[in-house]
Amino acid sequence: MEGFDAFIVVFASGIRLAIPLILACLAGLWSERSGVVDIGLEGKILVGAFGSAVGATFTGSVWAGLALGVASTIVFSLIHGYASIDQRANQIVSGTAINMVADGLTALIGNAIWQQGGRTPQLPDTAQFATIEWPFVREIGAVPIVGPIYQHLISGHDLITYVAFLMVPLTYWALYSTRFGLRLRAVGENPAAVDTAGISVRALRYSAVVICGVLVGLAGVYLVLSQEAYFQPHMSAGRGFIALAALVFAKWRPWPALATCLLFGFLDAVAIRLQGVELPVIGPVPVQAIEALPYVLTVILLAGFIGKAIPPRASGIPYVKER
Length: 323
Prior knowledge:
This protein is an all-alpha fold. The chain has one domain (2-129, 147-305): ABC transporter involved in vitamin B12 uptake, BtuC. The chain is built from 14 helices and two strands; from the N terminus they run ααααααααααααββαα. The chain has a two-stranded antiparallel ribbon with strand order 1-2. β1 and β2 form a beta hairpin. α2 runs antiparallel to α3 (62-86).
């Protein structure tokens, strides 16, 4: 039972670490399903994190931080959308530019305001999302097997965590069971056919870009208002790129994307637990090797262990309306 309880605790930690990945992965899914490649997720996570830190620091309100963080990423998403959809720019170059601008701009503005090397002050408890404790958690927590699952996996998370899990079935329903989702997926496969039917390709792609901005903004907000309680430069730490890898691994489908992100989060939690642990023959586990585990797995999975992952046919291709 002790081993089971320890596994549940580690898995619960993995869930918390996976939330930014889940949100960013779903954001990329919406964008790429419409035909707009977005490798700027890494930079947008930083923008959302910085915006939420600024809003929460100056107002002391977690909701102001949430609003400013999401609004910031929507603006950057619209910039990427304008370059990709209206100007027909190379979407990879546009996303790379967003990553570079976000990385430098957040550090520059943060240092100019607080003069702490880009780091923001520690947020008070009132400016953070509190954990939500479900009813009878202590009583049920004493029950073997069911108790630890209820106490650590179901209860004890913050609002954004529950929103992230809710967004998975909502995304699946919206993409596969609504007219909007059908049209959006059609735009990513054959925009000319959608245009011929009298439906605006531009409007659909912009809608997907805005949804992407909201979701990836929540990923950045989570880092600051739920995990760290401050912003520091480069705090996204490659999560945007891992989310893109998870998206490819999941073959642009919501439920496999959730499973992949949870796997990455669990490995990250295991890596943290293994730091300083001595293994037989090997001895102390090097911290650097442990921290590299999720990235090594990403390379291994993308090297051919997932079968052929075929993106939407019009992904990354600007649509030029025929006259």
